[in-house]
Write a structure and sequence with these properties.
The protein is mainly α. The protein has helices spanning 6-28, 50-55, 67-74, 80-85, 109-133, 135-149, 202-218, 225-230, 245-249, 253-265, 287-311, 313-327, 335-338, and strands at 65-66, 89-92, 104-107, 240-241, 269-273, 281-285. Helix 1 (6-28) packs across helix 12 (313-327) and helix 5 (109-133) packs across helix 6 (135-149).
Length: 373
């Protein structure tokens, strides 16, 4: 663990919390899914992850909120068309195509029910973690995260942004930064959130710190942290079967498809058919791709060293120690993995249980799941 990037530790803890909260929300709320049916009690909205609570649901009121005000409140875009189609919101007036900034969003009956569930689920899972890991370890992690988050600039979201083209956290690509004031000489010591961070739930604190790390990484890397951590990292110098990448990286095949497509289009990888008698596609890094892969480890280490200088060695070392106590190791028997056991009626109980967690959350437009599902 001493050699694990700080971003990996943050990601493992955040993803584990998110999956546990997702399982709990699914268990408590009427819902439907594309491939795994619907809840037995009654039909409900299409199931989404905790991210969609943080970037949309939590801000909806009976009086409505404009698209522009939602973006300002959440500090990151949401999938408005998805939330409408999935049954959580209605838009007034109904847009012919994309809603404008003055369009007003209202929660549906299902949206109001989801709000009640999600608000309680997040509190309950954090309390459950106190029992599983011990109050001292969870409280210590909160203390470290709050101390660091209070020094970050204002404007950070309370959830990982939905990844778009290139799977960049900071925007759509180099030069397009949705958090332009983050981590500069002027803002490095800023107290952007003040005492308000003390009231944030654990996943929001983890998200703010992890977004900060990702943005700093992507200002110095043409390849996103998501692709670097979850795809490039697991590729050697030879060929790898594409169908093996989800298990190697801890992410979904849809996330792998987006990442590998970007790598091929940008001359960082090439694909071809697997030799007979096997079937499918295989992928191999180009020289440019190997350089990007080899940059991942040194750059994450450099950022952590920079943080120790910027915010104090004691703060960053303490944060690392507390994350390591929760993340433990990659052993599936560790408490962090044991908390991922789904309910028997949940969709994750019907698919192969992951043996590892993503080294960076692959939050896609498909509902905000941290492995890209």
């Amino acid at each position: 663990m001493a050699g694990w990037p700080l971003s990996r530790l943050l990601s493992h803890v955040l993803v584990a919390f998110t999956i546990e909260a997702d399982n709990e929300a699914e268990h408590r709320m009427p819902h439907s899914t594309t491939n795994h049916g619907r809840s037995a009690e009654a039909p409900g909205p299409w199931l989404v992850s905790l991210v969609m609570w943080e970037n949309c649901l939590r801000y909806l009121t009976d009086d409505g909120i404009t698209v522009a005000d939602l973006a300002r409140a959440a500090r990151t875009p949401t999938n408005l068309d998805g939330m409408r189609r999935w049954g959580y919101i209605r838009i007034d007036p109904p847009p012919p195509r994309k809603p404008g900034p003055r369009s007003v969003l209202y929660p549906t009956r299902a949206g109001l029910a989801a709000q009640r569930v999600w608000r309680q689920v997040i509190a309950d899972v954090e309390l459950r973690w106190h029992g599983r890991f011990g109050p001292a370890d969870v409280a210590g992690l909160r203390t470290s995260l709050c101390a660091l988050a209070a020094r970050l600039p204002a404007g950070l979201p309370d959830a990982l942004p939905i990844l778009g083209h290139g799977l960049y956290t900071r925007g759509r690509g180099p030069g397009d930064d949705q958090f332009p004031g983050l981590v500069t000489a002027e803002t490095a010591g800023a107290d952007g959130a003040g005492s308000a961070v003390d009231d944030l739930p654990l996943p929001a604190l983890l998200s703010r710190v992890l977004v900060t790390f990702a943005v700093e990484f992507e200002r110095e890397s043409a390849t996103s942290l998501a692709i670097s951590a979850d795809v490039l990292r697991v590729l050697g110098d030879g060929w790898t079967r594409v169908r093996d990448l989800p298990a190697l990286g801890g992410v979904s095949k849809e996330a792998v498809s987006m990442a590998s497509g970007f790598l091929v289009r940008n001359d960082r990888a090439e694909t071809g058919p697997v030799p007979a008698p096997d079937r499918g596609q295989r992928i191999r890094l180009t020289p440019s791709g190997r350089r990007a892969r080899d940059r991942y480890g040194p750059l994450t280490a450099a950022i952590e060293d920079r943080w120790r200088t910027r915010w104090g060695d004691a703060l960053i070392a303490g944060l690392r120690t507390r994350l390591e106590r929760l993340a433990g190791s990659a052993d599936p028997a560790r408490p962090l993995m044991l908390g991922l056991e789904p309910y028997p009626d949940g969709w994750r109980a019907r698919v192969r249980r992951p043996q590892l967690l993503p080294h960076y959350p692959m939050v896609l437009h498909r509902g905000g799941y941290p492995d890209g599902s």
